[in-house]
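User: I'll paste a sequence; please echo it back and then give the predicted structure.

Assistant: Echoing your sequence first, then the prediction.
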Amino acid sequence: MWSRPEVGERSQRADKSFVAHTGGDPVQQPRRVCAARVREPAEREAAVYAHHRGDERAGTRRAGARRSGCAVGGSRRGPRALRGSRRHSSKPRLEHQVCPLAAGGVRLERPYRQEGNGGWAGAINTASFAEPLRRGYAVAGTDNGHEGGGGADWAIGHPEKLIDFGYRAVHETAVQSKALIRAFYGRDPERSYFNGCSDGGREALMEAQRFPEDFNGILAGAPANNWSRLFTAFVWNERALLATPDSAIPPAKLPVIQRAVMAACDGLDGVADGLIENPRACRFDPSVLVCQGADAADCLPGAQADALQKIYEGPRNPRTQELLFVGQPPGTEAVPGSWGTWITPANPASAIQFAFGNSYYGAAVFEDPNWNFRMLDFDRDVRVGDEKAGPVLNATSPDLRSFRASGGKLIQYHGWGDAAIPAPSSIDYYETVRAFLSKYPDARTPGALPAEDFYRLFLVPGMAHCGGGSGANSFGNGGGGAATRNDPARDIFTALERWVEQGVAPERLIGTGRATDDPSKPLTRPLCPYPQVSQYRGSGDVNDAANFACVAPSSK
């Protein structure tokens, strides 16, 4: 049967796109197909991803019709009062057909999983759908209401698009995807999960804060949740490294910096293994690297050392000296794909951080394509950004009482070597939630249950942005594999499933990787729920997780 959402059933939304896939095993159910009806009869036959972008044309992206499951996508347009757009169209541009099922072996219930975005979004990452489909989930994603994620120019003059990006598109995708599942299976999804990293991590926390009943379980990786202050730090780093012609730190100097940091701090956790368990305990002073004479390969000119110190410290308000955001932790400066990509590339002006910071202030805050980073006032303009864009983009509310009361479970993870989003920002948010919940009661949750009853944070030494880097940086965060998919100790999403469905909280995870001193050797290491840290027991192979224990920091 054809299912067309009626006008009265739509909640407020702007022009956005989403893709949903109702799941299905490609081997067991090879004959499941899907069709979508668009404006022209010739376009009737859509394939697995029938995807409409946010323009006036209706079109499909074709694929093999015999791939598994049913996927639908669309930008629905409702009346102006409902969708917040200046244009008016009384009909949706895409109608959904409930797909026929092959006889036999049909699963009558289906859990739902929604995948998050990265950066400024602007595209639907259908590649991320493969893993949840293998797990038996119906899956969906959204482009957050605009096309193209290289910057935020789409936000100039379009506050409704910033709202879509900030929170509305993700929530609406959840609502509409569940409606599709209901139509397809005749019942609501048995459980709903959200998985995202970076901007997807921000989306994850935004869902827990604004729409606490959308998902039973949320996995939030390296969340850019304090968007306005994080992007302020990007401009701070840009100003520090481009302050003078001599300030930029060339990539060749990053190994010099990391070796000096390791010499000062690697042994603080009880074992010299090329990883710093808790970089906050590292008190490295960049001035020890200042060249005593001319610039040389093993030292830094004074201007570079000054820039490095500013990056470690983080941005400050020049008038009040308030710390505006956390600084970059030391210890992974030379790791491939880290500082040399995000902060200090060979072409100093091409750092990824700088592009994000400039797009935030130039497009989302001041909506001025001629704005440049040297114009930023770290007192007045940061306040303007907090007040104008922060309420839409920031996911910093510590009030998770409704999410807790709904029975939701939240796991957050962050790599200490993340050069895109410093890991201490995750600690700051977690601590604000703990403090809030300990102070304010909730009649729906008697007994003042602590944050760790539903929310746990795992910090990963050496890991870069969302994955990679050094150390034991693989624990299902990149989708996992068949070998670990059913092991809650080695797969973080499986750990979340067990917590939601069986009530068993993850006491620790096991990360895998390669030894830092010899990549030919495998490495396993326990990943401990914050504030616990991993401590070497004093004997045995330092590359074996069995020889480490999760302990409170005070016992180290």
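The first helix runs from residue 80 to 83. Residues 120 and 149 are 5 Å apart (CA to CA).
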